[in-house]
Design goal:
By secondary structure, the protein is an alpha+beta fold. Helix content is 53%, strand content 8%. The protein has 2 domains: 2-77, 3-Layer(aba) Sandwich (Glutaredoxin), CATH 3.40.30.10; 87-199, Glutathione S-transferase Yfyf (Class Pi), Chain A, domain 2 (Up-down Bundle), CATH 1.20.1050.10. The protein has helices at 11-22, 42-47, 66-77, 87-116, 125-145, 161-173, 182-191, 195-200; strands at residues 2-5, 27-30, 55-58, 61-64. It binds glutathione (GSH).
């Protein structure tokens, strides 16, 4: 049985869980609601020295870093469904997975923590507004990429859609001003047809 550590409201946990859901796996979810407090312990640090979630344990093998879990699940458990077979699709999947974890995430963290996890009187409006502007810029790149493509790596869903899709949920769920992104919105609608996306990613933000 797979053991999966993390709280369901974390975007990093959501990406990994969504990949497992797409692969049709079942897992023992530890600290799903963040109530056990297990990550701030010596015991958890043995599994994940960074003391971060998520961590996946597969028959004694530890997999750390959310996008590494997405790749691992895709390659091991859903190679025909999630891992693109052609290099032309594979490089696009990888490109947008990196985009989510780097260019997109830094602004998403500022906006998410600024608006959702900080009381209104302590929010730094200028910093948040700047990151909202940057986020719109980042999503405009994805919007352009999706012209003529149903999904990120082509016309079929793949692991490449998972990190960016989790980011898109936050982008559309946050109380922020968004530009009009028709291609991004069409793709986001397609993602919402997927049960693991609705159940594992589209959860309340706080
Ligand atoms: N690069 C790591 C980042 C993991 C990370 O930052 N996890 C956050 C949650 S999103 C965490 O563990 N925070 C401590 C906590 O939630 O208590 C990954 O992608 O797995």
């Amino acid at each position: 049985m797979l053991k999966f550590y993390g709280r369901k409201t974390s975007i990093n946990v959501q990406k990994a869980a969504w990949a497992m859901g797409e692969a049709g796996l079942k897992w023992d979810w530890i600290d799903k609601d963040g109530t056990v407090g297990s990550i701030d312990s010596q015991e958890y640090r043995k599994l994940n020295p960074a003391s971060q979630i998520p961590t996946l344990e597969d028959d004694g093998l530890l997999v750390r870093q959310s996008n590494a879990i997405v790749r691992y699940i895709s390659k091991k458990y859903a190679p025909t469904k999630l891992w693109p077979s052609k290099y032309s699709a594979y490089v696009e999947a990888e490109r947008w997975m990196e985009w989510q974890a780097t260019d997109n995430l830094k602004n998403m963290v500022t906006v998410f923590w600024g608006l959702i996890r900080t009381p209104p009187e302590k929010q730094n409006k200028d910093v948040i507004a700047n990151s909202v502007w940057e986020l719109n810029k980042e999503f405009s790149l994805l919007n352009e990429h999706l012209v003529g493509r149903r999904y990120i790596a082509g016309n079929t869903f793949s692991m490449g859609d998972i990190p960016a899709g989790a980011a898109a949920y936050r982008f559309y769920a946050l109380p922020i001003k968004r530009h009009n992104f028709p291609h991004l919105e069409t793709w986001y609608q397609l993602l919402q047809e997927r049960t693991p996306f609705r159940e594992l990613v589209m959860v309340p933000l706080s």
